[in-house]
Amino acid sequence: MAKPIAAVAPPERLLCGPGPTNVDPAALAAMGKPMLGHLDPAFHAILDELVTMLAEVYRASDGIVLALQSTGTSGMEAGIANLVEPGDTVIVGVSGYFGARIAEIAGRHGANVVEVAEEWGRHVPNERLLEALELNPGARLMAVVHGETSTGVEHPLAELGEALRGSDTLLMADCVTTLGGVPIEFDAWGIDYAYSCTQKCLGAPPGMSPLAISRRALERIETRSTPVPFSLDLRLLRAYWIDRPAAYHHTAPILHVYALHEVLRQTLAEGIEARWDRHRRAGCRFAERAQDAGLEVLAEAGHRLAPLTAVRVPDGVDGKEVQRQLLAEQGLEVGGGLGPAAPPIWRVGLMGPNASEATADRVLDALTAVLERGRVPVPG
Length: 380
Ligand SMILES: Cc1ncc(COP(=O)(O)O)c(C=O)c1O
Description:
By secondary structure, the protein is α/β, with parallel strands linked by helices. Helices cover 39% and strands 14% of the residues. It is globular and about 65 Å long. A seven-stranded mixed beta sheet has the order 2-10-9-8-5-3-4, sandwiched between helices. The protein has a three-stranded antiparallel beta sheet with strand order 11-14-13, covered by helices on one side. The mean pLDDT is 97. It contains twelve helices and 14 strands. The structure holds pyridoxal-5'-phosphate (PLP).
């Protein structure tokens, strides 16, 4: 008879790549609490609290917030699927992997996609996005990545929202690497649809996508003439998450909801501004020390994303081999370039429980030690 397979025994890792980050121990503990049914009023009371906390973290009180039963990509797709109809024009800022993904998804949903591209490491200037809007005044949606995880660039989102004020074009923001780690003011900045994930600055496991939807985006959805894919239909999701009595839409990932509830609770207990500041200090520390060590930060100055720093792999160094050694010898995960268009980089994420100056030092020390001992080809 075949030998029985042992239970999973994953190795301990310090996850300092682009995400997932290590899970906050309180979130893991929350996942061990008793299972409830998804239609149990006791569970709906938990959802109600989660919604109240999520609205605070997004600083969104005008429309609705909820958490989609899947990851950041589905949050992206839900935005396109609900806000765009075939033939609509969508303007997308693309200067990395995830901007390109928004454009790809919008195209798959039949949109006429206008890409405003910049090279990796730079932000897409708002002036260029607004020029594209002047050329396409009927555009229904403008989409940008607030924190481009493939490059470590932060988009000036507040200014874009301000510039679009009064326009009929809705603003969609990818906040996957910013929610809980970088300032976001959903209402004040005039964002219409934001999506995020649980596995980065919030410090929960991957598996849900927290969304914020403005009142005017909800109104836009009401006037659609074509149906939305069932699992992403925000009207049906609202009937489960927000309206009471709740109407069944899907079986909620109960334990993930507990984990998200817990990290939102922790975020508010810490203070959202304090949490942004903790991420800022960790990211700055890593970027400064990396530069002192002779490494070049990919992102242009003034637009650096604190939770994720990309540094160029020095000429002559095998970046993947460095990552392999860090993982094998120290249990330390850092990321590499994402996709064929990526330059040779390492991506270091300091997110959620790992957003500290001590962890920044630990990663930088480990990286420079591997480079210095020279078992990877170093520049000649
Ligand atoms: C900026 C950005 N957008 C979207 C995604 C997709 O999220 P997920 O992998 O959770 O589907 C990611 C994932 O890392 C991301 O960094």
